[in-house]
Amino acid sequence: MDKPADIPAPPTAERRPYSYERHGVTIEDPWHWLRDPKYPEVTDPDVLAYLHAENDYFQDWAKQHHALTDQLFEEMKGRIKEDDSSVPIRNGDFLYWWAFRPGAQYRTWSRKPVRGGDDQTIFDEPVEAEGKEYFRLGALEVSPDGRLLATLVDDNGSERFQLRIRDLATGKDVETVTEVGIGQPVWTSDSAGIVFTEVNDNWRSYRARYHRLGRPASEDVTLYEETEELGFSVGVGKSQDKTIIFVSTGDNATSEARFVSAADPSQPLTLISPRKPNREYHVDAAHGKLWIHTNDEHVNFRIAEAGPANPEDWRTVIPGSDQVYLTGVASYRDHLAISSRVDGLDQLRLRSYSGEETRIPFAEASYTAFFHGNPEFAPDAYRVGYSSMVTPTTTYDYHPHNDALEVLKVQEIPSGYDASQYATERLTIDARDGAKVPVSVVYKKGFEKDGNGKLFLYAYGAYGIAIPPAFNSNRISLLDRGWACAIAHIRGGDDLGHQWFLDGKLAKRANTFNDFVDVAKGLAAAKFARPGRIAINGGSAGGELMGAVVNSDPELWGAVVADVPFVDVLNTMLDDTLPLTPGEWPEWGNPITDKAVFDLIRGYSPYDNVRAQAYPPMLITGGLTDPRVTYWEPTKWAAKLRATKTGDNLLLLKINMGAGHGGKSGRWDKLHEVAETYAFIMTQVGE
Description:
Blueprint: E1 19-22, E2 25-28, H1 45-64, H2 66-78, E3 89-91, E4 94-99, E5 108-113, E6 120-124, H3 125-129, E7 136-142, E8 148-154, E9 161-167, E10 172-187, E11 193-199, E12 205-212, E13 221-225, E14 233-238, E15 244-250, E16 255-261, E17 270-271, E18 281-286, E19 289-294, E20 302-307, E21 310-318, E22 324-331, E23 335-342, E24 345-352, E25 357-359, E26 368-371, E27 382-387, E28 394-399, E29 404-410, E30 422-430, E31 436-444, E32 454-458, H4 476-479, E33 483-488, H5 498-502, H6 510-525, E34 534-539, H7 541-552, E35 557-563, H8 569-573, H9 581-588, H10 595-604, E36 618-623, H11 632-644, E37 651-656, H12 667-685
Parallel strand pairs: 32-33, 32-34, 34-35, 35-36, 36-37
Antiparallel strand pairs: 1-2, 3-4, 4-5, 5-6, 7-8, 8-9, 9-10, 10-11, 11-12, 12-13, 14-15, 15-16, 16-17, 18-19, 19-20, 20-21, 22-23, 23-24, 24-25, 26-27, 27-28, 28-29, 30-31, 31-33
Helix pairs in contact: 2-12
């Protein structure tokens, strides 16, 4: 295990007096100065000097372990097909796909006519990204007539995307519609207009606009602007039958939708149903009806239908169920494609409009499966994705006429992979309050459950986001070195239904942290590893989880990796000028107006609860341009940990100076960061 003596002394951030009072409580925050007041610009020389010092310290460590990191990187890279490509899928008169050229960091997007003809490159990401430290393609939408391409591109990690229109005949961009786009744009039926969303200065997606090509931006029509709820975000989409454009608004608990004809979005929007607190609904359209997925009558949602002329008259098609968690519906010509989850496992069903249902069959006991998003309204087959902890990602076409799954592609592992050498289990571990928490585990056969093994445990636990038991080729580098890898399906996600999510938010937030700790203890009791030989990882809200459990149970962990961690929870939720704060109150609570919420968050906020105790080895990452978890959250946390913790375990902070929430953007650059993470946990937990 590394000792700090192996590398130069770590940097320290000075304390500068700063305090404020809320609800009669004085909060001291001597590292507040690390937040540059000019953000999103970061120009303060003291702030930059500290960030560079921390990055230099990280690089000093990385240089000592570059051989291991490089070895891991080459292993992981060897499992990735360099010239990989997607299975072509039809949209209108063309087949579309993406491909990586050997060595390329980014995809090249292509198409060819269904009736035959030459391949055409429609967007070459490597060319577009050339010379840029960061590049992210946020959206790519071809016009209905196939002549034009709309793209959203972010080249600094700020998630403010430039929306451009390209003439596919010439390959030249003909218009820049906005510099602050976000989300997925949708074309009008005549291919002469586009509907899109924009963010304001606080990075809130606040309005939907309609632009006619060739006309100045001053003539763009604002279809909808959110003015009532500070925390609501606006989005747009198109129905599966391509006749309707939806404009939605909402936060993490409440939603509202409007629609307009895709033939003429300048007409007034029709409101489907006014917003009601804690009611969500999502809408598609086909056969002259609206198809509504909503939690208004049952926590696990129902599916209803309504007529566009009377859109608030919802008639149940599939009622809510305690056993079946309905997660989504798309309406095609012949079927409703229904996504659901039963006992935490994905179920995919097709329902004819006469009510006959077919479940798409999958053989394994633990897996993840999903509809791939068929762009056609009347597909001959339905594209499906599938994997498990031991089964590489497989792309199928499901043919409903003969109930057959056709294998189109199995993820290729060029360096070789034999699934029979690995085993997976799905366990249930009792949490301290009696809840049954599912855990997915994978290991190489021969792994001894004698307590001497090493365990890598991952979780997220927020926003109702389930973490599926999916295949990950990077994980093999741990499995082949004798590690077991586990995913804890803790409350806060919706792995076991929408109530599972509700039981990990707001006043019940502690359940998320307790579940994770109890899973770790349960796995230790099952002899997967003993305390101190468990490495853990989480990012964003999962980074908050890392911060909470490292404060509460530091002795359990052999190494902790917290990526872009949301750890300064109290300060962030008290600041309604920050981009995401108002929209986050339904998830965490509003400590500005509610003292009980203030006390609750203050009681678990990782930054506020750092104390003088021995912390395990920790690697903390962040992004300078991250609009979701601002760079100062991991930075302040690391500074406070350095000043407060006892013992000499390693603490590293790495801030990506040219990237945002997702880290580096190129596929090899991202892979190298995974290799760094694995090298860190291996050197800290030891062999």
